[in-house]
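Fig. S4 source data, part A: sequence.
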Amino acid sequence: MLVILTTKKYNKSFFKKDKFVQKKAIERIKLFQQDPFNILLDNHKLHGEYEGCSSINITGDFRAIFEYITENQVVFYDIGTHPELYG
């Protein structure tokens, strides 16, 4: 099974979000563990500042940024809206 790790920054951002976003994040990360390329996740590679990382969709507005550490281990770096993450 895919091991999910989170950074302090991710945890801090996560707990600032409302309960709905937190619930959706947990649901989407569980889905990601089962099927990282499920169409609902819109898993895609990032460029620029986040070169080497990827992003998944949490809700229509929220994204989570992550990176594979090993084939079976992923670290989530941050969660937020597009402007929060890339602005």
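Fig. S4 source data, part B ends here. Residues 25 and 58 are 5 Å apart (CA to CA).
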